[in-house]
Design brief:
InterPro entries: LRR_dom_sf, LRR_R13L4/SHOC2-like. By secondary structure, the protein is an alpha/beta fold. Among the domains are: 138 residues, Leucine-rich repeat, LRR (right-handed beta-alpha superhelix) (Alpha-Beta Horseshoe); 117 residues. Helices cover 12% and strands 25% of the residues. The chain has a 17-stranded mixed β-sheet, with helices on one face. Strands 8-10 form a two-stranded parallel ribbon. A hairpin with a 3-residue loop joins strand 2 and strand 3. The radius of gyration is 25 Å and the shape is elongated.
């Protein structure tokens, strides 16, 4: 184990704290940076398996420094065995082309880096298992991403309408099990190929699609037999996706976020959602009626409803014999009272959490939860 504190002097342009613990190296920069070409920037004891950078300075300097350190580390073969590189919060790091030489790299985080383009060298990292692009400004990913056959987790910058090319040169990556932040819109290339990610387990997507395309999306998702976590956020959704979604036999978590459902009625029929354990409704302003048939969602344990101000009391909740937690956030008083009455009379094993009560003429809002059982 090794800890290095390097101060500024005539030969070094920066001050940093470098730590080497169990083959992990972390660089902590101050506002003066580091002479990235200095051999003092690298561990003298072994080759690091993990490399982490901490530098929240503004401007282009941090990105330049990190680029130089990576280039020097790769050229000196210090980083060739590295399995983890974490660049989170480094402003637009300049990734060298030689990054493709990191044949053992398993994890690469570019979260909060605000990168505008995905460097082509990243798609050459054929051993990479996790690629985190959350909170970047990348708006295009080539189809070569699907050639990364060992990629298991792909996190995209959902706030951007990223164009993710859908048709690979060969077969689709069958190892991908987490796809987070996908935004489908218009004639999105991947829409027609989504079902080919047949081992996908977790999917979070937003979409802005017309009626026929929405139906296609529901059909494609319905073919993802390994899916157990699905989060949807939509603009102008008009069709009820439940008939297709409830066929997903391994689905355990289903979240509807703002405007992902704009119909007045939603129904869960008998036999549907056999493995579903968690169901969330957030900000579904137009939803007025939710029916639950007896035999639907026989494994549900947690139901959360937030800011669904027009939703009537769902009497079908009494059919959910396995439910143990109901969370209410910013819901009307009458809805809360009806839920509480149902729990008291017919669902004694259920806990209720109430957060941020909706303001009305006869009540004040509270930020603390009330919990009852």
């Amino acid at each position: 184990r090794e800890i290095i504190i390097q101060n500024r002097n005539k030969t070094n342009h920066g001050r940093y704290l470098g730590t080497h613990l169990d083959r992990q190296i972390a660089y902590h920069f101050d506002d003066h940076g580091l002479d990235a070409n200095s051999t003092q920037a690298f561990s003298k004891k072994g080759i690091p398996m993990s490399v982490l950078f901490f530098d929240k300075r503004e401007g282009s300097k941090p990105g330049e420094y990190i680029g130089k350190i990576l280039s020097t580390g790769i050229a000196s073969e210090k980083f060739l065995e590295t399995r983890v590189i974490d660049l989170e919060c480094i402003f637009r790091p300049q990734l060298p082309k030689t990054l493709r030489k990191l044949n053992n790299l398993k994890y690469l985080s570019l979260r909060w880096t605000y990168l505008e383009e995905l460097p082509p060298c990243i798609c050459k990292l054929l051993e990479l298992e996790t690629l985190d692009l959350k909170h970047t400004c990348i708006n295009y990913i080539p189809s070569s991403i699907w050639e990364m056959k060992k990629l298991q987790k792909l996190y995209l910058p959902q706030n951007y309408r990223i164009k993710l090319e859908g048709k690979p040169r060969g077969n689709f990556n069958e190892n991908l099990h987490t796809l987070w932040g996908l935004f489908l819109y218009g004639s999105y290339p991947l829409l027609g190929y989504l079902h080919k990610l047949k081992n996908l387990q977790k999917l979070k997507l937003a979409f802005q699609l017309k009626g026929p395309e929405q139906k296609t999306l529901a059909e494609k998702i319905g073919k993802l037999e390994q899916l157990h976590s699905l989060t949807l956020k939509s603009v102008d959704e008009t069709d009820d996706p439940m008939p297709e979604l409830q066929k997903l036999l391994k689905l355990k978590s289903l979240c509807f976020y703002a405007d992902s459902f704009t119909e007045i009625k939603m129904g869960c029929t008998s036999g549907g959602f056999q493995q579903l354990q968690v169901l969330r409704f957030w900000n579904l302003d137009k939803l007025k009626e939710w029916t639950v048939d007896e035999g639907a969602m026989p494994s549900l344990m947690e139901f959360e409803v937030r800011s669904c101000i027009n939703l009537a009391f769902p009497t079908g909740l009494k059919h959910l014999k396995t439910i143990r937690m109901i969370k209410l956030r910013k819901m009307p008083n009458q809805f809360r009272k009806d839920i509480q009455l149902l729990v008291n009379n017919e669902m004694s094993l259920v806990n209720i959490e109430i957060y941020e009560e909706l303001k009305t003429k006869d009540t004040n809002s509270g930020s603390q939860p009330s919990i009852s059982n």
